[in-house]
Amino acid sequence: MYKLFALLLVFICSQSSTFAQQNDIYIKAGLLYDSEQNVLIKNRVIHVKGNTIQSVGAFNSIPENADIIDLTEYTVLPGLIDAHTHVLFSQDATEDFSEHSIHSLTMESDALRTLRGAKRAKSYLDVGITSVKDLGNSGLFLDVALRDAINEGTIEGPRIFASGPILAATGGQIYGVSPKHQDLIDLEYRIINGVEDAKLAVREHKNQNVDLIKICADNIPNNTHLSIAEMKAIVETANSYDLSVVAHSITNQSAWNAVQAGVNGIEHGFRLADSTLTLMAEKKVFLVPTENSRTYMNIYGKLAGYEEEDLDWVDNYMQMMKSRLTRAIQKGVTIVAGSDNYTAIGGTRGESSRDMFRAYFEAGMSPLDILQSATYISALNLNMANDIGVIKSNAKADIIAVKGSIETDFINTVEHVEFVMKDGQVYTD
Ligand SMILES: [Zn+2]
């Protein structure tokens, strides 16, 4: 039985490779962003065959009569990566997160939720984001289903690295739910009850083919949190399956606990103290800062119904974010770009997500450092740096082009993506 199955697999694999598109395409880049070296290089040509980059060389390496895509007037970059998304979740600015979650879990079918997610997913490609790390709030593995539908070509969208339901302590992040309705939480979170259950939860997730594990180190404003022992059990079991673990953390204490437990990354980390940042740098734990730009906050404030004078807190918020990001960089913490934008503020989800570039820029990061954190560094922390986030031999052909000057007009330029290729296929030309 097993032998026959193995033979069948070999047959299927050899079949599909013969159907793959194998045209040679040469992309001429006026400027090429080398994400590993974090520099812009003039006049390079990228040779793409099928879905793979064959080589990067000089213009004179193009053979005669070759198929050429001329991007000499553009800057060419690897497809961008958003390392913190919730493709299957959307709320209005006026809605309460918890009430909206319960509404969605009880009145939005999985089918409807997934179809809506599919539309959001596609919008990432339009803005040059060709990969996303999708971190829960996606029902029972609807993120995995969406990923598979994209990978098999049923729908168009970015590469999705899916976590499945978030592992969290009692109540998850859905606050205010009465005892008799706590079972609703199990439709959105995997509630952990002790060390053995923590191990079981990771196995369940592995069995559903997730790409990584997301935990809530704290559940603020729900006052429960995972213990260090539970988080350690999660990390050890996940690592035994080659899965990395990222931790949502608001309080400094929960981040400290998660880092002690051995997680690979901290998401948000709004209240990180210097001592925790130092520990993160030592243990090579990355940070995904998920704040928003001033522009975004102004739009959000209006939609949420705040009066102008009620928005003083935004200044404090911006200041806090800038200080934390600056301290993290000074301490040597690796920054990975992620948006966490799931509120409908007008425009598509992809457009909303690229606000992270503006936020980091306003907080003082240099354009090239921002791009590196959204390409090579992000890929490195997904263990995918040979495949995505880079333009080099044998990488997947995820390639975009922008018009303008990255170094002198960053925001305008990064918002003018005029060419998008994912997996060797041109989406926007
Ligand atoms: Zn999030």
From TrEMBL:
One family name in Pfam for this protein: Amidohydro_1
Annotated keywords: Signal
Cross-referenced InterPro entries: Amidohydro-rel, Metal-dep_hydrolase_composite, Metal_Hydrolase, Metallo-dep_Hydrolase, OTAase-like
Transmembrane segments: none
Protein name, UniProt field: Amidohydrolase family protein
Sequence ranges assigned to domain Amidohydrolase-related in this UniProt record: 75-426
Range of residues in the leader sequence: 1-20
Keyword Methyltransferase: no
Ranges in coiled-coil conformation: none
